[in-house]
Design brief:
Elements lengths: L1 H18 L1 H4 L9 H13 L1 H18 L6 H14 L11 H23 L7 H45 L1
Length: about 170
């Protein structure tokens, strides 16, 4: 129960940071996608099921507050959570390269799906412009912010796992 509450706090904090502080700290209109970072991190650390749950909630928040179609972003984020949860067996707390790479790949996949579904299908075929002015800057900004955000999530996850192990050993 405690883990679920803390996960909800992560989601709400990332959403609020993304919509308020980083909404003002944009570079050329680009802000980091903290919800992708949270979805990928939780999925990577806790597995497919939790990754999908966090992804769905994050995507639903994006749908409600910024999207025009309910369920579009929820589906994208859910798939990203599942995809990152698939790499849980490769998760080592000391290695930050793989999580950063997975968050970067997740952000690229997110941007590609958004481009194809929201721009290309409407007849806007300026992929190179979208890549240079939206996708790559968002990717770099997201990874830079994730360097800090991931460490916070990892630290809290370690504490929760230690606490869960202690409480499990009491009942054995």
């Amino acid at each position: 129960m405690k883990r679920k509450i803390i996960t909800c706090i992560f989601i709400i904090a990332a959403f609020l940071l993304q919509s308020t502080i980083f909404g003002r700290l944009t570079f050329s209109g680009i802000r980091p996608n903290l919800l992708i970072a949270v979805t990928a991190s939780i999925g990577f650390m806790r597995g497919r099921k939790e990754g999908m749950g966090v992804g769905f909630v994050c995507g639903l928040l994006v749908d409600i507050f910024w999207g025009g179609l309910i369920g579009f972003y929820a589906l994208i984020y859910t798939v990203i959570g599942y995809m990152n949860g698939s790499f849980q067996r490769m998760f080592y707390e000391d290695d930050i390269k793989l999580p950063l790479a997975m968050i970067g790949i997740s952000d690229l996949i997110y941007s590609m799906v958004v481009y194809v579904c929201l721009f290309m299908l409407k007849g806007e075929f300026e992929f190179i412009w979208f890549l240079e002015h939206v996708m790559l800057p968002e990717l770099v900004y997201t990874i830079l912010v994730t360097l800090v955000l991931y460490q916070i999530i990892l630290h809290i996850n370690r504490k929760l796992e230690k606490e869960e192990q202690r409480s499990a050993s009491r009942f054995v």
